[in-house]
Design a protein that fits this description.
This protein has about 180 residues and is α/β, with parallel strands linked by helices. It contains 7 helices and 6 strands; from the N terminus they run E-H-E-H-E-H-E-H-E-E-H-H-H. The protein has a 6-stranded parallel β-sheet, sandwiched between helices. Helix 2 links the parallel strand 2 and strand 3. The longest helix has 14 residues. The chain is globular, with a radius of gyration of 16 Å.
Length: about 180
């Protein structure tokens, strides 16, 4: 699959020292509660964006955050807002319990974010050893991986180059056409 947001991927932006996560935040499989717990324990800045489906989910999310001043919820994000956050974030975390591809993580990687990704399912295979792969059931594993990347360890710019060259719409389309022609 190709990532969805199109931008001038080669542009260099000043990274800010925070971890970003975008998803359907209260969906249990996204594992946001453990990411929030890791942010609280390891004291890293966490910015959350995404959809909450109802007032109950909003109450649940804010109960997890519990007034922590290092965690911000921005609400549902437009493509432009996501793009700006990807360009600013040093780390993008997707420690899901169950994930297909994780398009948001591919987009973030293409725009210069280092990635913390679940070891469950296939998403980690997209990064060929250029991401921190974590046990999503282990809050400490998540927290330590985020902190290592926030504190200077990086797979960039090699990761951005790899992702943009391997998973752009043009590249993926050519691979699909080639495969279909081979049938």
């Amino acid at each position: 699959l190709s990532f969805g947001i199109q931008s001038s991927f080669g542009e260099v932006c000043e990274k800010e020292n925070f971890c970003l996560h975008i998803s359907l935040l209260c969906d249990q499989r996204k594992n946001v509660k453990r990411l929030i717990e890791a942010s609280k324990k390891y004291h890293f800045s966490l910015i959350l964006g995404g959809k909450l489906r109802n007032d109950e989910e909003e109450k649940l999310l804010y109960s997890w955050i519990d007034g922590a001043d290092n965690i911000k919820y921005l609400g549902y994000l437009s493509d432009e807002e996501k793009l700006n956050l990807y360009k600013k974030a040093r780390v993008f975390a997707l420690p899901s319990l169950n994930e297909g591809v994780g398009i948001v993580a591919l987009e973030a990687a293409a725009l210069g974010c280092d990635i913390v990704i679940t070891k469950l399912g296939g998403p980690h295979e997209y990064y060929v050893n250029m991401a921190k792969v974590v046990d999503p059931y282990n809050m400490d594993d998540i927290g330590k991986a985020v902190c290592e990347l926030l504190n200077g360890e990086t797979f960039q710019p090699q990761l951005a180059n790899f992702v943009t060259n391997s998973y752009s719409l043009d590249t993926v389309s050519k691979k699909l056409i080639s495969t279909l022609q081979g049938l």
